[in-house]
Amino acid sequence: MAAIFQGVGAAAALSSLPSNSFDSKNILFSPRRSFSVRKAPSFVVVRSDGTMNLDLNPKGRRAQQFIANAVATKEDSSAASSSSKPGHELLLFEALREGLEEEMERDPRVCVMGEDVGHYGGSYKVTKGLATKFGDLRVLDTPIAENSFTGMGIGAAMTGLRPVVEGMNMGFLLLAFNQISNNCGMLHYTSGGQFTIPIVIRGPGGVGRQLGAEHSQRLESYFQSVPGIQMVACSTPYNAKGLMKAALRSENPVILFEHVLLYNLKERIPDEDYICNLEEAEMVRPGEHVTILTYSRMRYHVMQAAKTLVNKGYDPEVVDIRSLKPFDLYTIGNSVKKTHRVLIVEECMRTGGIGASLTAAITENFHDYLDAPIICLSSQDVPTPYAGRLEEWTVVQPAQIVTAVEQLCQ
Amino acid sequence: MRFLSESPSVYSQCYRVLDDAGQLISHSNFVPVSEEVAVKMYSNMVTLQTLDTVFYEAQRQGRISFYVTSIGEEAINIASAAALTSDDIVFPQYREPGVLLWRGFTLQEFANQCFGNKADYGKGRQMPIHYGSNKLNYFTVSSTIATQIPHAVGAAYSLKMDKKDACAVTYFGDGGTSEGDFHAAMNFAAVTESPVIFICRNNGWAISTPTSDQFRSDGIAVRGQAYGVRSIRVDGNDALAMYSAVRSARQMAVNEHRPILIEAVTYRVGHHSTSDDSTKYRPADEIEWWRMARDPVTRFRKWIEINGWWGSEAESQLRSSIRSQLLHAIQIAERAEKPPVNDLFTDVYDNIPSNLREQEKLLKETINRHPKDYPADVPI
Questions:
Q1: Is A146 a catalytic residue?
Q2: Do B157 and A140 touch (CB under 8 A)?
Q3: How far is A107 from chain B (nearest CA, A)?
Q4: Distance between CA atoms of B52 and B46, rounded to whole angstroms?
Q5: Which of A270, A304, A329 is the last residue of a domain?
Q6: Is residue B273 annotated as part of the catalytic site, yes or no?
Q7: Does residue A120 lie within any of the structural domains?
């Protein structure tokens, strides 16, 4: 597993990096705005995916299966004593908790409300232990009334608290749509700026493992139109913690989308305090031939496909867009200007999803740089079936991504 | 085996202090008010009544686009406001401008919001009567029904965490109690033991829906017990009763950390709004009867006159003064500049993001190219 370094120190380590290698060790982060096209890969690369390694071994090849476990902790990294490496290892849900806990310690106004978030610790254990540490008033168990406890969160935010509202599953927040659209996104504006709503609404969404249609909703499609809110999607322990903290510090209402299948991803993250900018996309793998834009779980399907593509001689550039509202058109634009070909891989449905908006935004802004029409791979416009095979077929698989790139690049 | 009846054997009592003639009902207990407070309450009730009349006329003349009156509910508005402190946070529905009036919102400020001019605190973004004032602890009115009720519980939760000597107060109508938000908020206020006062203005009508079509319970006060919330039914047109009830409720809410539900029984004398003609669904003589015989303003005036605190000269002076102040405020508001085009894009977020800046630029370019298609009085 690679270590991730933040900002300072990046320049020094750069020289030791062999160019064009993706050895999963020292991949560096360089400050955002000084980004320019370089030959040596010197941008942040997410290493939660052990399959990043270029030298393919049969173990890594899983052509027949979709990604069941995106993270394989490699044997050698556990053999190396963890005390010799900087940072600490944890799972994504623990990273979310750590981010939340640190912010709760830092700012007494931060509080959590949701179903079973208190002593039960949350249905995905993101709030485990927080009620014991901070008390029942700061980690509040609510009755089953999403619209109302979201409304409560909004009222509390307007009065000076910084609440985190947890939807047990994002799909349940459909019940909170009225409060989110009509009040959360709106009241800062309609009050003439008199009242701010620094609320964070978070929860797991996306297609899981046979959870049925009602528990496989992609709420980002529905909420993207609401003015006044920001939306981000985390995909690694590093950005999960960073985005959680940034969201809590933001004065605007932020919806943080987590994914049900990514909670157990393991990664080594820095010990120091850091945040991830809410409006930035993440460069996962720089490349030259095609820009693949994705977010959340699909990032891992894309990286799996990237392995196959590299074998076939392609050099895809993978960008985890992370910020779903607004889009980071700066990073995305630079990528499009470099590769001239765009593939969007999302879990949303074809109609009205994030991909649809992204396609429109890219076409509008970067039309002259495109050598081919944008391809958007999404789920079909069907409710997610329960049956395992059927569910598999509604989610974009690596094989389709490979085919789409081949089609784009011919 | 005994089933609980669907309706109580005895309907909930209605707390009243003054009878229709403005005289104290014997054996009624109430919180006494000084002459100063009583006269201030009465003046505010008259101001509210006049404000409503003048603005309603202004809408009919086409000077403002929309208006909602609170005629018949002046006692609820003013008396409840008088019983609260300025630290208590108010979450209104839209028929409670009297609370703002009591707290010091000026006639000019009301007019500015209705005309949506540059001085409006809402920067022209909301319909008329959607007032909001941070400094007066009155949260901006949102058109959606009952969404403010859970907001109040959230605010009470915040006040409780900060251990403040204040409570949250929210108002809603009989129709609003059918919304899911009402039930969950009541339930949750009880469970979290929050200092919040729920004031229901049961005025008999939700636009054209009478309460018989809205619910089958014995009004709203009985619902309190279902959630574990202490409640009371009050004659909403009796200013003294409203004052006493809210005063006691506040004490209980703040000292005992409990929610209280007050059902103020009244009548919506005006139409639902300027977009409604209520004679289409209710008899005109019913409206007239409530307007004249059951007017809360008249009733309270009789009481302060009995006490020698008011007279007909003071009355006519007050009414003409308020009316001329209002007409003046309207004239100023009407002539004032409208908010600039930038205000279309600010406050969506804390800082204007790049996509909105782009959209603003596009709009300005379009306006510059076709100036005659855009209103001349809106500054760019």
A1: yes
A2: yes
A3: 13
A4: 10
A5: A270
A6: yes
A7: yes
Residue A27 in domain: no
Residues A265 and A133 reside in one and the same domain: yes
Q: Does A196 touch chain B (CB under 8 A)?
A: yes
Among the partner-chain residues A156, A192, A279, the one whose CB lies closest to the CB of B122 is A192
Give the distance from residue B185's alpha carbon to the nearest chain A alpha carbon, in angstroms.
Answer: 6
The tens digit of pLDDT for each residue in B243-299 reads 999 999 999 999 999 999 999 999 999 999 999 999 999 999 999 999 999 999 999
**pLDDT lower than 50: segments of chain B:** none
CA distance B251 to A237: 49
Q: Which residues pair with B260 in a beta bridge?
A: B197, B230
- Please report how many Cα atoms fall inside a 13 Å half-sphere around the Cα of residue A174, on the Cβ side: 12
Which residue blocks in A15-170 are alpha helix, DSSP H? Answer: 75-79, 92-106, 130-134, 146-158
**Position A377 in a domain:** yes
Residues in Cβ contact with B370 at an 8 Å cutoff, skipping those fewer than 6 apart: none
Q: Are residues A120 and A230 in the same domain?
A: yes
The answer as to whether A393 is a domain residue is yes
pLDDT score for A300: 97
Contact A152 B161 (CB under 8 A): no
Rounded Cα–Cα distance for residues A57 and B368 (Å): 63
Question: How many residue pairs from chains A and B have C-beta atoms closer than 8 A?
Answer: 153
CA–CA separation, A2 vs A89, rounded Å? Answer: 11
Beta carbons of B161 and A138 less than 8 angstroms apart: yes
Final residue before a domain boundary, out of A215, A246, A270: A270
Residue A65 CA: distances (Å) to CA of A54, B77, B156: 19, 67, 52
